[in-house]
Structures are given as C-alpha cells and as structure tokens.
Design goal:
The chain is an alpha+beta fold. Helix content is about 30%, strand content about 30%. It has helices spanning about 20-35, 45-60, 105-110, 155-165, 185-195, 205-215, 230-240, 255-260, 275; strands at about 5-10, 10-15, 65-70, 85-90, 95-105, 115-125, 135-140, 175-180, 195-200, 220-225, 245-250, 270, 285-290, 300, 305-315, 320-325. The strands form three sheets. Strands 3, 4, 5, 6, 13, 14, 15 and 16 form an eight-stranded mixed beta sheet that branches. Strands 9-8-10-7-11-12 form a six-stranded mixed beta sheet, with helices on both faces. The chain has a two-stranded antiparallel sheet with strand order 1-2.
C-alpha cells in the first residue's frame, strides 16, 4: 500500500513517503548541481560545497514532507545549514529520515574531475541508522548475483572467485571499484593477485557502490573503507536495485569506538542494507555535477542548462531517469 495515512480531527499526523516525493526531491539535487557549476575546475571545494548547500536547503524547504536530517554536513556548530538533526521541508507531509550530500565529491568538483554528484536519500522516520559517531566503515557492494555469495568477512580473492562463478564468468572479467587511498594499497594488490581488474576511484564511493549493482555498469563489486554516511545512503539505493551492501564499522581509534558504543552501535557486526535502513520505503535521488558512470554532469546548451538525474524507489523497485532543462539566465551569469 502506498501512502499510509493516520488522521484525527486535527488533520494528518503521519504519512509515509509516497511515489511523488522523488520527483519533488530531484528539484533540490538539480538546484545544488547547477549552483556548483561555476566552481567546477576552479580549485575551491569549500565554495562549491557552500553554493550547493544553500541551493539544496532552499528547495528542500518547499517540499511537502517533514524531514529530519540523520546524515548531513555535520553537527550544528560545524555546519550552520543541513546539519544533523535539522528539520527540513514544509512539515505538512510524510515524516522521514533524510540523508543529504549536496556534493558527493567536492574535491572532484574543484579539480574538474568526473563522478561528482548531488545526493539525497530518504526513508520512513526512525529507520535510518545514525552512524555519525563513527566516520568510516568497511564495505562490499554487489548486484543481486552477489547475495548469499559474497561475505565481507571472507578474503577478497575468495569473494571475487565466488562472484565470478555465480555469474558464469572468468575471474579476469570481474572489475572491482575501490577508493584510491594509501590504506587500500594492500587490498588493491590482493584484488589484482586474484586475477580481477580494478577501477580506482578518486572520490565518491556512493556512485561506485550503486554502479556495482546496476546491470548496465561495468563495475561488478565495490569494496574498501569509506565514509559511514555514504554506506547508509548507498543502502537506500540498494533497496530499489535489488543488490546488496555489507559493512563493518571501522573506528580510527579507541575514543571513536567508545563514542560508537555509547551511541548504541555494534562493532565486529555486519550491517547490511536492511539493518542500515530498516524500511523498504526509500528514495535515492542523484543529479550529476560532473560527468560520470551513474549520471551525466550539468551541461550548458546555448540558452539552457541541462541536468541528468536518477531516482530510485525502494518499495516499487523503480528506476527513473530524469533530464531537465533550465533557462540559463535564471540561474547563472550569462
């Protein structure tokens, strides 16, 4: 059933996210992506992020929902807008948890590199894991073929061979996405020693995880240590794609681990997409800032600006592609 409504004589108390919410949220990611355009390749990631944050927040204020940011730009003192715990929306619609990343890939944007996206993920209120006390988690993401086949607790070579067997392919045909970081040098070598190829990501493992689950992508698996917020966001997308993500929290020191314990988080425990986000009533919305394998970047075409977005709805398993044209003179200096 879509849209469960509880009413009293005072009106609507609660409404779960319905099918129209994704089309409203995409306006916010489109706005954030467009506002970031003047900063692409100009080396100032903070200016790009601020422009995207301001635009996203302005548009979220018009959306018919009562959203609480579980994953945002940080705590209130560090992030004056879109901070963890902030209420967004007009307060008159569905009660939701929301994760926002106005630009996933601010460094990519500043350098003019590929795969920067603007992202929003939404689920029913109280269903999104708040892992903000532990910044990193170890992850493995695959498409549906990997369910019951790969296990984050097993060696990467074993997982690669198992996925190759499950998909009826040679190990040499498997491509594994991983963030190009010093912490991953040993893991990268293990992937190659197993006979698989790597796709090294400069940033943005949300797109990497999602591409691992998309049938038309050339990525088969995404692994490695990345941000915990990005893991929760990816889980929302997996609900629609039918893929999987498995994660284990990776605190950087004992103090961070204790903060996680105090927050009720579990360590040496595998969080999958159903424990990262306990509801199947999810939306994942992304608009390209720069070109990438998931969506194209913002393009200027004469008097218009064109955006490319993807909307994933968990409950129905629907994947929508949205292109929108905006008048450039309304948005950018011309």
């Amino acid at each position: 059933m879509v849209g469960i409504v509880t009413t009293t004589n005072t009106g609507i108390l609660n409404l779960h996210p319905d099918r129209n919410l994704g089309m409203e949220l995409v306006r916010a990611t489109e706005a954030a992506a467009i506002r970031a355009v003047p900063f692409i390749g100009h080396g100032d990631k903070n200016a790009a992020d601020k422009a995207a944050v301001d635009a996203m927040r302005a548009f979220l204020a018009t959306v018919n929902f009562d959203g609480v940011i579980v994953i945002g730009e940080g705590e209130k003192d560090e992030a004056p807008m879109l901070f963890n715990g902030e209420h967004v929306g007009n307060g008159r619609g569905p009660a939701c948890d929301i994760a926002v990343d106005p630009i996933d890939g601010t460094s990519l944007t500043a350098a003019g590199r590929q795969n920067a996206v603007s992202v929003i993920a939404v689920s029913d209120r109280g269903t999104m894991l708040d892992a903000s006390s532990v910044f990193y988690m170890n992850k493995i993401a695959t498409g549906p073929e990997g369910i019951g086949v790969v296990d984050i607790r097993k060696p990467i070579g074993e997982n690669i061979r198992a996925l190759a067997k499950a998909t009826g392919r040679n190990v040499g045909d498997i491509r594994v996405a991983i963030l190009d970081r010093p912490r991953h040098q040993e893991l990268i070598q293990e992937i190659r020693d197993a006979g698989a190829g790597t796709r090294l990501l400069l940033d943005g493992d949300v797109a990497g995880g999602i591409n691992a689950a998309r049938y038309e992508s050339r990525i088969d698996m995404c692994v490695g240590i990345g941000g915990s917020p990005e893991g929760v966001v990816t889980a929302c997308a997996m609900k629609a794609l039918g893929g999987q993500i498995q994660t284990i929290l990776a605190p950087k020191d004992d103090d961070e681990k204790q903060r996680g314990i105090d927050a009720g988080l579990k360590f040496d425990h595998v969080y999958d997409q159903d424990s990262l986000v306990t509801s199947d009533n999810t939306f994942f919305v992304a608009t390209g800032v720069t070109d990438g394998g998931l969506v194209e970047g913002v393009r200027r075409k004469g008097p218009i600006i064109r955006t490319d977005s993807i909307i994933l709805r968990g409950r129905s398993g629907t994947i929508r592609r949205v292109q929108a044209d905006y008048r450039a003179d309304r948005w950018l200096e011309v």
